[in-house]
Write a structure and sequence with these properties.
Elements (H helix, E strand, L loop, with lengths): L1 H10 L4 H10 L4 H12 L8
Helix pairs in contact: 2-3
């Protein structure tokens, strides 16, 4: 089972929610986190502008 989930993660694109969460987790300060949250709200990972 572990091998199939690993292969699946290689071939399937990550969901926008997963990408957003990873992006927020890389914030280095509160100001950076707030800026990243505004970028996500404006549609950075969902194609809306």
């Amino acid at each position: 089972m572990k091998m199939t989930s690993k292969l699946r993660s290689i071939f399937l694109p990550e969901s926008p929610e997963t990408l957003e969460h990873a992006y927020l987790n890389r914030a280095v300060s509160m100001a950076d986190l707030e800026r990243r949250m505004r970028e996500i709200d404006s549609g950075r990972f969902r194609g809306r502008r």
